[in-house]
Amino acid sequence: xPTYSMKLLKKQKIANDTMAFHWEKPEGFEFIAGQYCKxxxxxxxxxxxxxxxxxxxxxxxxxxxxxxxATRMSDSAFKQVLKNMPDGTEVKFGEPHxxxxxxxxxxxPAVFIIGGIGxxxxxxxxxxxxxxxxxxxxxxxxxxxxxxxxxxxxxLKGYADENPNFTFVPVMTETxxxxxxxxxxLIDAEMLKRHVSDVNVPIYYLSGPPDMVQDxxxxxxxxxxYEDYIKxxxxxxx
Length: 238
Prior knowledge:
The chain is an alpha/beta fold.
């Protein structure tokens, strides 16, 4: 299994308790939008029983210059080392994996129902589809507590402006209606039907905290969606 040494170019806070990390893309590193890699710290100054390796979805699309990962921060040794890592530090990336990738059948719409940091593989897919001018109809329902908790909002708004086939529906669960004029509350069958004309046609992509992914899967099944049309990616532990 090949591994790739990648050098940290920069890091930045992108939402509440959330950071993005940009890595120098090495020669020969190829992946499909939506895939993930295992990232291993090299001789970290501290560690714990969770180890020095984590799996991260690749945020940037294959056409973009560098490699980006993003994560909710925590008190784990891994996350603290990452948070304080100086620019230029090298880590090891494993080979890209995963089939949480955009389907090829252009006649079938894609509907993404996403919570929080689960947006990372989806940002990559939508960016690549917009860049390639794919004809797929794409709809994203993106749930967060507040706008300040939502990574990549500006990117997603930009893709919606650029891509006539992409509909962006941000959803806030803990923002007062006086402060937010979009969708509010938990995503349910009624909200889905407001934005998807025939819920039985699309391929669905569910990503986010495990409880949300399970609830959304059950909601879709209860709505009559064929289970083979549902793809899931759970983000646990952060």
